[in-house]
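User: Predict structure, ligand fe (ii) ion.
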Amino acid sequence: MYTQAMDIAAARGEDPAPGQVTDAGYQAEFDAKIDRGDFIEPKDWMPEAYRRTLVRQISQHAHSEIVGMLPEGNWIGRAPTLERKAILLAKVQDEGGHGLYLYAAAETLGVSRDTLVEALHAGRAKYSSIFNYPTLTWADVGVIGWLVDGAAIMNQIPLCRCSYGPYARAMIRVCREESFHQRQGYDLLLAMMSGTAAQRDMVQDAVNRWWWPALMMFGPHDAQSLNSGDSTRWGIKRITNDELRQKFVDATIPQAKLLGVTVPDPDLRWNEARGAHDVGAIDWDEFWSVVNGNGPCNQERLAARIRAWEEGAWVREAAMAHAAKSEARAAGGR
Ligand SMILES: [Fe+2]
Ligand SMILES: [Fe+2]
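Assistant: Predicted complex:
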């Protein structure tokens, strides 16, 4: 291991004194690392556009995890059994944890968490459009786990291999937890589908409402995707939006059949020649309307986050006061 590390350091040409290396030299080094599939780490030189792209993507991801606690959190107090309540509590807490890892990963790029949160609260930062839809029945909790966490897994598994080390490493644990989220949702739906006709109708209704927003989670079609080119070149994005969406549909349709539900797409059919499902047209007007703040729950979600931040001010103040006291005690030799 030691010799291998020595070889790699030599091959990277890391010996010259920093003052002798030009920006172009750093850029060439960065490009070579990307080409080799090496991780870029926080202390490594990186192009400013790469840093900004990562800050935007990781912070949007963090905001999505935190805002994503709200639709399901709404059902914790109304879970039908103690077991379901414990599962849902664990799931929602996991999402909070994902947000925290991701804010920490973004901070390694030289931006503070307060700045990121402030951008969210001011409406300047985006988060996943899916969390601006309401959770109307208990079946929504199951469908979110199955479809929304299922789509999140498809999106996030390639990120475990993304070029920025702290983001890639955070994703490994996040993906393990997302897998539990997907399974608990599917398990909840299986239980409901073996219940009464009213319960089965509830599941079908929830699938009807969440199917299209779940497909929109993969973002615009490749031809319209603004940030994909650079992200692909930099090894941040490994698989395109349309490829991921296709993988999700192909994995999910057999699960829908097993469950006994249909998806609300009259144009969905198996394409023998492609070995994949064809899907109907996505309503991108709806997508952009929700992204731009006009979904059914945008205002409610943002208001809930701002309220939580304000009501939590005393916790942050107490933590800072405690830290200051501990530091003063340490400095005083106690
Ligand atoms: Fe998550
Ligand atoms: Fe999740």
